[in-house]
């Protein structure tokens, strides 16, 4: 999965935000004791492209809104490789809420 953060490079917390975003993307939901709701559902990854796009985008927006409010998703784009059956998602983030 490609992850882009737009406008956050000047934020002093950029590296921490990016690390949290990557961690959420790499954790299968339900795999961490005491935090079973954290992570993206990997069940969507085996769906047909139209269903995969919608379900994955909705799941990503909900997860990042819950677990990393310092960055909000502004765009989700997909590329499908018909020859290999692989799908690549690109998530574009903008700065979200801050504690200030």
Strand content: 25-35%
- The CATH topology is given as Nuclear Transport Factor 2, Chain: A
Number of strands: 3
Output the helix-strand order: EHHEE
For the biggest sheet, the summary is: 3 strands, mixed
Instruction: Give the overall pLDDT as a whole number.
Output: 82
Supply the number of helical segments: 2
Shape: globular
Portion in helices: 25-40%
Poorly predicted regions: none
Whole-number count of domains: 1
Structure write-up:
This protein is an alpha+beta fold and 100 residues long. It has one domain (2-95): Roll (Nuclear Transport Factor 2, Chain: A), CATH 3.10.450. The chain has helices at residues 14-26, 49-67, and strands at residues 2-6, 71-81, 86-95. Strands 1-3-2 form a 3-stranded mixed beta sheet. α1 packs across α2. The longest helix has 19 residues, at 49-67. It is globular, with a radius of gyration of 14 Å.
Task: Produce a short descriptive summary.
This protein is an alpha+beta fold. The chain is built from two helices and three strands.
List the helices and strands and how they pair.
Layout: E1 2-6, H1 14-26, H2 49-67, E2 71-81, E3 86-95
Parallel strand pairs: 1-3
Antiparallel strand pairs: 2-3
